[in-house]
């Protein structure tokens, strides 16, 4: 079982206890949440601060390919890009990780060996999560054995939405136990949880169960990461650390495509959770196309002109 602070030691003792705890959390003021997220998104970041933000964002990317048509060659090419995003400028930071399906984890691990770039692998019947627990745990074991440093799991949204909160909690605990030294990112699929109150409750379930990161989305549904749902999750990890002393990371994923988007999210991090989360160990972007825009904006700052569309690789 995960270690939690005494204040929460009884919250997961039974389904009824967990339900009481979750429904005792403050309700989310949706209007206020969205207004604050929008206001923070208007902050202007320029010159040296923008250059710093671009490099920080690059270093926080989980460069991702999660397609049925993925091949070893594509994964190796993505790994090469993660290690050396801009071959014309070796000062460009490496990305945080490359994220792949479990059957591609060994290929990614071999390509990234010694680079410092992590191998992340989705598991637990990603993206729908519709499988028996033993199948999900086997999925995790396969990825870890193949060299994954990080596991991105999906929660059972059907169980959550039908009020079986302890089942969701216990499944996360079981997956965490299979991770060994690999860090666990717990994906809520916020677009399917319907309400901000549900996102807050899912965040607390994940944190209580031992998640190392809480993550918005799979990137496979219509609504993925938004400033508002990410702000809500940042508030949750901030409050959890204040109560327990345990720091949890946050990963917005899906729909973050431009440098402007990324900078808005970094402002959210700084103004909500604080500077301690402005580090790839505690904040990630789940993205594929974002890196290309960051590289083009980075070149614009250094040369004064925008590069052509052939400046970056097509992933």
TrEMBL record:
<dbReference type="GO" id="GO:0009264">
    <property type="term" value="P:deoxyribonucleotide catabolic process"/>
</dbReference>
<keyword id="KW-0704">Schiff base</keyword>
<dbReference type="GO" id="GO:0004139">
    <property type="term" value="F:deoxyribose-phosphate aldolase activity"/>
</dbReference>
<dbReference type="Pfam" id="PF01791">
    <property type="entry name" value="DeoC"/>
</dbReference>
<dbReference type="InterPro" id="IPR002915">
    <property type="entry name" value="DeoC/FbaB/LacD_aldolase"/>
</dbReference>
<dbReference type="InterPro" id="IPR013785">
    <property type="entry name" value="Aldolase_TIM"/>
</dbReference>
<comment type="similarity">
    <text>Belongs to the DeoC/FbaB aldolase family. DeoC type 2 subfamily.</text>
</comment>
<dbReference type="GO" id="GO:0005737">
    <property type="term" value="C:cytoplasm"/>
</dbReference>
<comment type="pathway">
    <text>Carbohydrate degradation; 2-deoxy-D-ribose 1-phosphate degradation; D-glyceraldehyde 3-phosphate and acetaldehyde from 2-deoxy-alpha-D-ribose 1-phosphate: step 2/2.</text>
</comment>
<keyword id="KW-0456">Lyase</keyword>
<dbReference type="InterPro" id="IPR011343">
    <property type="entry name" value="DeoC"/>
</dbReference>
<protein>
    <recommendedName>
        <fullName>Deoxyribose-phosphate aldolase</fullName>
        <ecNumber>4.1.2.4</ecNumber>
    </recommendedName>
</protein>
<dbReference type="GO" id="GO:0016052">
    <property type="term" value="P:carbohydrate catabolic process"/>
</dbReference>
């Amino acid at each position: 079982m995960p270690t939690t602070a005494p204040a929460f030691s009884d919250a997961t003792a039974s389904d009824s206890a967990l339900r009481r705890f979750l429904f005792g959390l403050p309700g989310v003021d949706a209007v206020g949440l969205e207004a604050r997220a929008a206001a923070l998104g208007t902050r202007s970041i320029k010159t040296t601060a923008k250059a710093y933000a671009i490099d920080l964002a690059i270093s926080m990317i989980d460069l991702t390919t999660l397609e049925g048509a993925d091949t070893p060659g594509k994964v190796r090419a993505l790994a090469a890009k993660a290690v050396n995003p801009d071959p014309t400028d070796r000062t460009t930071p490496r990305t945080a990780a490359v994220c792949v399906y479990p059957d591609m984890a060994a290929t990614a691990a071999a390509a990234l060996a010694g680079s410092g770039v992590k191998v992340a692998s989705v598991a637990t019947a990603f993206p729908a999560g519709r499988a028996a627990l033993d199948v999900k745990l086997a999925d995790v074991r396969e990825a870890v054995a193949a060299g994954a440093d990080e596991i991105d799991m999906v929660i059972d949204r059907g169980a959550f939405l039908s009020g079986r909160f302890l089942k969701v909690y216990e499944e996360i605990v079981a997956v965490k136990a299979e991770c060994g030294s690999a860090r666990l990112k717990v994906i809520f699929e916020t677009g399917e949880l319907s309400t901000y109150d549900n996102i807050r409750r899912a965040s607390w379930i994940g944190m209580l169960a031992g998640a190392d990161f809480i993550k918005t989305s799979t990137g496979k549904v219509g609504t993925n990461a938004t400033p508002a749902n990410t702000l809500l999750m940042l508030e949750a990890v901030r409050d959890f650390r204040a109560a327990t002393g345990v720091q949890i990371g946050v990963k917005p994923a899906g729909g973050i495509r431009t440098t402007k988007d990324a900078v808005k999210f970094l402002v959210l991090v700084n103004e909500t959770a604080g500077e301690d989360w402005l580090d790839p160990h505690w904040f990630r972007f789940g993205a594929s196309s974002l890196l290309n825009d960051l590289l083009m904006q980075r070149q614009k700052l250094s040369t004064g002109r925008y590069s052509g569309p052939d400046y970056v690789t097509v992933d």
